[in-house]
Amino acid sequence: MPFLLTFGDSNTHGTPPIETRGEYRRYGAEIRWPQVCWRALGAGWELAEEGLPGRTAAFDDPVMGAQMNGRAGLRIALQSHGPVDVLTIMLGTNDVKTRFAAPAETVLAGVAGLVDLALSIEMQTRHGGFRVLLICPPPVEEVGPLRGEFLGGAARSRALAPLYRDYAAARGIGFLDAGQVIGVSAQDGVHFEAEAHGALGRAVAEAVRGLS
Q: What CATH number is attached to the domain comprising 23?
């Protein structure tokens, strides 16, 4: 039975656009894009959702904690689940926060470290080989209650897709530019509306089916 592992941040977790800071909410399974993708793939697939709100590709967060660094999280996920057949990675949104001031190339470097781990002999051998789909998140917008945390992030995030695309081609992994499929909510400039989850889930399923 093929196994899909979706690794990401709050948009993989299913956090709706934020209305009140500090309030925890999550879309139901019928809305979240990993679940939409899983259903679109059809019978016979298993799914593990590994979305952590606040997760970065490579930064310890001084506010939210060191556990937000995706390097440790991906290793744990790959050791917790399996055998994995397809891994999706969608990170980079939190890396463009003002407190990290990371240029796009630095964000890519963090993502590259995660891909290197996924493609390592250790992990590939553990799972009997699996494919990787790198998803570039849609650019953030500096609006709403999160504007202060993402000041300057819009420009940084707009520069990610070409870098991710070239890197995926160089590494021989799958690539999907989510920004060509959906956009962020106008409410908080970071998270996805329910309709966007549906569109992204269907696009990811198509990309997974196209992996060689």
A: 3.40.50.1110
